[in-house]
Amino acid sequence: MRYGEGMARDPFLHLLRDRRARFHAVLTDLGLSTDSDDDVTSDVGGGWTLGEHMVHIAAWERRYTRQVTGSPKNLGYPSAWEKFNDAVYSEWRGVEPDAARAEYLAAHVGLVAAVSALSPEGDPERPKLLVGWNLGMAPRHYREHATILLKHVGLHSPPPWRGRIVE
Q1: Model pTM?
Q2: Of 26, 44, 97, 161, which cross-links 40 as Cys (Cβ 3.0–4.6 Å)?
Q3: CA atoms of 52 and 114, how far apart (whole Å)
Q4: CA 139 → CA 15, 46, 97, 154, distances in Å?
Q5: Which CATH number goes with the domain that contains 31?
Q6: Facing residues of 43 across strands?
Q7: Residue 46: phi, psi to the nearest 5?
Q8: What pLDDT was estimated at residue 154?
Q9: What's the sign of the alpha-carbon dihedral 37, 41, 42, 48?
Q10: Would you give the end-to-end CA distance of the chain in angstroms?
Q11: Are 89 and 56 in contact (CB under 8 A)?
Q12: Does 160 map to a domain?
């Protein structure tokens, strides 16, 4: 697929699943787990706890879900991305581990369900829906946060995530 072309539903879902798995592989490499309360409440980069990173990703996945479903995108947050990020952080700062895990899972399940409801070709009315600024960023968001975590411990960004690690 060349930049600017549309993407079908199933390749997008595979890409999203792969990037989430890669993010979790980075967590494992760093000795972290979303299942550990201690890890979820630890500062892991960017001045955020792992739980705060999780709910940040979740907020964006909820925003992406609204893009797919045609619902208003802002979720009660400002629409400009910097202000959106600030508002999400303000609301979720110091999030408890169980709440972080629940939000991280629920938002992802919602996004997968919304995209899964599209036809196999994607959305013919919006052919670039799955590659545009909003939705196309969903898989990339995991790498962005993996980079933050790696830099926090003095490591470099992960190499380009090419190919797939999940089937």
Answers
A1: 0.90
A2: 97
A3: 24
A4: 7, 20, 23, 24
A5: 1.20.120.450
A6: 49
A7: 70, 15
A8: 92
A9: positive
A10: 19
A11: yes
A12: no
